[in-house]
C-alpha cells in the first residue's frame, strides 16, 4: 500500500513538474508596438508672411514650404514650373493670400478642399485699385497691378486675421495638435499686435508730412496708419527717366512731400536727387518675400527704420 502510494506521489510530482515546464515554455504573447509619431502636415504657402505664420503656429507638427526661386522679386506675379506645381498639388494644405495674389493657383487644378483663403474673413475690407498700370520686375517681365490691393499683411490688423485663418486651418487638419497650435498662435498674435502698435507710433510723425511711395503696394499700410500717401512706379535698382522726375515735380507743386517710402534702398543718384528736393528716403519692405528671413524680422526692421 505504502509502495503504491509512493509511486503515485512520485508520478504526480513528475507530472506537475512537466506541467510547470510546459507552462513556462509557452511563447509569450507578442508585445503591441507603440504607435510612431504622426508625419508632419505638409503645408505650402504663396507668400513669406503665410509661410512664417504657418511655421510659427505649426511647430514640429507642420512642414512648411515656400519654394520661390531666387530670381523672382514679387511672388504675386510668379508662375511656378510644373515640378513645383506638382508639389503644391500633393500638399496637405495650400495657404493662399486671396484677392488675385498668385493667380496661378486658380489655373493649377489644386484640390479645393485643401486650399485655404487666408483673407476670406475680411474680403469686404479689400482696397480696389483705381487703374491698372503695366510695368516690369526684371526677369518676370511685364505685369499690371489691377483688381484689388493684395499686400494685406502690411495692415497689422489684417496680418493678425490671416494668422488666425492659418491657425484655424491647421486645427481642422490636425485636431490632436489643436492645443499646441492655439498656444503658439496666441504668442504670434501678441507679437503682431505689439509690432502694429509700434508701427502706429512710428508713423504718427509722418501724418500730414507728405508721403510718397515708390511702388503701388502700400495701400493697406497707408490706410492703417493714416498717411494719405501717393504712389509712383519707381524701381530701386533703376534710375527713373526724366518724364518720371517731371511727373514728381508736378505732384510736388500740387502738394509738398517730405519722405518717400521704398521697397529697397534706391540707387544713390536717385536718393541724392530726392534729398535735393527735400524728400527723405525710408525703406519699408513689403515682405511678400524676404530672402531667408522671417516675416516678423522684416517687420522689426521696418519698425526700426521708421523710428529713426
Q: What's this entry about, in short?
A:
This protein is α/β, with parallel strands linked by helices and 308 residues long.
Give the SSE layout:
Elements: H1 2-25, E1 41-45, H2 48-58, E2 62-65, H3 82-90, E3 93-96, E4 115-117, E5 133-136, E6 142-145, H4 156-173, H5 178-203, E7 211-213, H6 219-224, E8 230-231, H7 242-254, E9 259-262, H8 268-276, E10 280-283, H9 295-307
Parallel strand pairs: 1-2, 1-3, 3-4, 7-8, 7-9, 9-10
Antiparallel strand pairs: 5-6
What does this structure look like?
Helix 2 crosses helix 5 and helix 5 runs parallel beside helix 9. The protein has helices at 2-25, 48-58, 82-90, 156-173, 178-203, 219-224, 242-254, 268-276, 295-307; strands at 41-45, 62-65, 93-96, 115-117, 133-136, 142-145, 211-213, 230-231, 259-262, 280-283. The strands form three sheets. Strands 2-1-3-4 form a four-stranded parallel beta sheet, with helices on both faces. A four-stranded parallel beta sheet has the order 8-7-9-10, sandwiched between helices. It has a two-stranded antiparallel sheet with strand order 5-6. Residues 1-30 and 132-145 have low confidence and may be disordered. It has 308 residues and is an alpha/beta fold. The chain is 42% helix and 12% strand. The chain is globular, with a radius of gyration of 31 Å. The protein contains nine helices and ten strands. Helix 2 links the parallel strand 1 and strand 2 (62-65). It has two domains: 41-198, Rossmann fold (3-Layer(aba) Sandwich), CATH 3.40.50; 203-307, Nitrogenase molybdenum iron protein domain (Rossmann fold, 3-Layer(aba) Sandwich). The protein starts with a helix and ends with a helix.
